[in-house]
## 1
Amino acid sequence: MGYSYPPSANMTRSAIADFPMPITTAFSTEIKRVSILDEHGSFDESLGKGLIPDPDLLRLYEAMVTCRILDEIAFRLQRSGRMGTYPQNMGQEATSLGASYVLNKDDWMVTCYRENCGLFWRGVPMESILLHWMGDERGNAMPREHFTTPIAVPIGTQMLHATGLAWAAKYRGEKRIAATFFGDGASSEGDFHEACNFAANLEIPVVFVCQNNFWAISSPATVNCSAPTVAQRAIAYGMPTIQVDGNDLFAVVKVMRDATAWVREHGKPHFIEMVTYRLGDHTTADDARRYRDQLEVDKWKGRDPITRIFNYMKSRSLWDDAKEAALRERCEKAANDAVARAEGIVDPQKNEFFDSMYHELPADLVLQRDTRQTHSLGQSESASLTASSSH
Ligand SMILES: Cc1ncc(C[n+]2csc(CCOP(=O)(O)OP(=O)(O)O)c2C)c(N)n1
Ligand SMILES: [Mg+2]
């Protein structure tokens, strides 16, 4: 049992005698888990009916298929030397998409690097994400009207950014909230705990969305979190928390809707653990076959969020093979057009980076810009070398 009784050995005898109170329960809780449409096609009408209107479901399905196709294309771009690296989203499309579907357009959506589907739903152009992974800074210039931040590769930073953004919104009396996305591995970073602690204690309206895909590159989630759920970490911060089947778009929408409503009403944070799985490698720089059991991957392929909606729509006669073929053609064209736009972007002018560094450019940099030479640097370097060698 996890209580500390009898009192520790270094307590004095009289202190033990003064410890007459019975053992009571200071706090107890349970973690709820929500699932509406499972991989066998079973649908919980009581929770799911009317949750996503059919026309929206068709659009959401198209968004997931487009994202999956873009993943496949990006993988080939990287393999043929046309992209630096790329983290596939394959298998995790429903988490960010369901959340993005629920968020207001002017709420902050503060992501890491595996939330393409949700970002595209918000209107972030596909080429922005491609440009980022092609190493073009312009892929990080998120249009202001999308209320998103650039892709965050340093693990954990974005949770603090989201907390700050939501705090600023609350301070200014704005209605917007923030939702931030991170992995199971990130929930072991100090930044995660600082963000949760700060948000809970200062009552900041943030939804913390952990996408537990069971792996942090080659580290299994059990190494990062020894508790049975990631969701329970939020209890330590006094936050409401819940677990959801993250491959079930309906359940994600339901849980996100309840959580955002709660956050808006109370102005405090809420935690959601979305249980999912990355079907691909961590990034194109990884080969997951070296550390993952193929049987595990196959099991999760059977829980694919896209197949689940496909089967559901077919079972309700909303969908058929002809519609599927037409949709795939449309999605492929949209993804290929985005690649063409990303690859066709005009190279920046060489002087442009001088323009954004200073309000007023110092004279030595004016010289560098105008001559495209670094004599000013060279001069000061050789001057300081001379100075140090004379001592
Ligand atoms: C601060 C920091 N440490 C280490 C890394 C290297 N790194 C990149 S992704 C990753 C694993 C992240 O795992 P998780 O949070 O579960 O996200 P997932 O990739 O599974 O979505 C690590 C350790 C990094 N990018 N930043
Ligand atoms: Mg992970």
## 2
Amino acid sequence: MKKAIVIGATSGIGKSLSEILIQNGYSVGVSGRRTEMLASLKDQYPDKIYCQQMDVQDASSIESKCNELVQQLGGLDVVIFSAGIGEENKLLDFSIENNVIKTNILGFVCATNWAMNFFKKQGHGHLVNISSIAGLRGNGEAPSYNATKAFQINYLEGLRLHADKSGHSIYVTDVRPGFVNTDMAKGEGLFWVAPVDKAAAQIYSAIKRKKKVVYITKRWRLIGLLLKILPYSILKKL
Ligand SMILES: NC(=O)c1ccc[n+]([C@@H]2O[C@H](COP(=O)([O-])OP(=O)(O)OC[C@H]3O[C@@H](n4cnc5c(N)ncnc54)[C@H](OP(=O)(O)O)[C@@H]3O)[C@@H](O)[C@H]2O)c1
């Protein structure tokens, strides 16, 4: 039986992915801050779920909490980092930017470092992160969100290079969603908003195929291509 850890499994994409993994025969270690959501997952799948309350901003606790989950699972094949926040910050309030950076960069780097070192020690594994199409360009209203997602995209490429040079069978998948119907996708001007179960099914398929980069849903690949070449003069009018 395969074993996975999902960090940020209490709602949205991470929760839906955890359920798909269970339906496909995995045991799953789930984490996030909301203990009541973790308990409800455990109630639904008592034999398949192991819970660990975790705040990724508390980087010093990530390693021991992940190690504890591995003990409970009895091994580890896949780590999915789906914890993330983003907030509009038109007034450039530093406390908001700091909060986003602590989750999307500090927590992300600490958790992915732990996963890669674990996989290197055992000689195999698969790291998956949910970044965003937002990471391809800047955003004047939520600068930290797009910038932290750009960091994740670049960092994941670095981890993939690191893994390839290690000679082990370690895979790194960068998942770049457009809009997915979760608590995070709020505000006006949203389009092509994917149901969360459809997004999670496409992500699971990409995991099975060990894709390096995947746009979710698939049509967002086109937007990704356009964003990369969009002149700044047009970007500032959007
Ligand atoms: N929805 C979209 O349109 C969209 C588009 C592109 C990318 N994404 C990315 O997809 C990922 C998942 O987001 P979602 O859409 O599924 O939204 P969501 O429902 O709000 O899920 C976010 C998850 O992150 C966890 N989390 C947040 N802060 C945390 C912390 N400090 N420590 C541990 N866990 C934390 C939350 O759990 P707790 O609150 O229980 O801690 C929750 O499980 C995010 O990285 C997001 O940037 C989403």
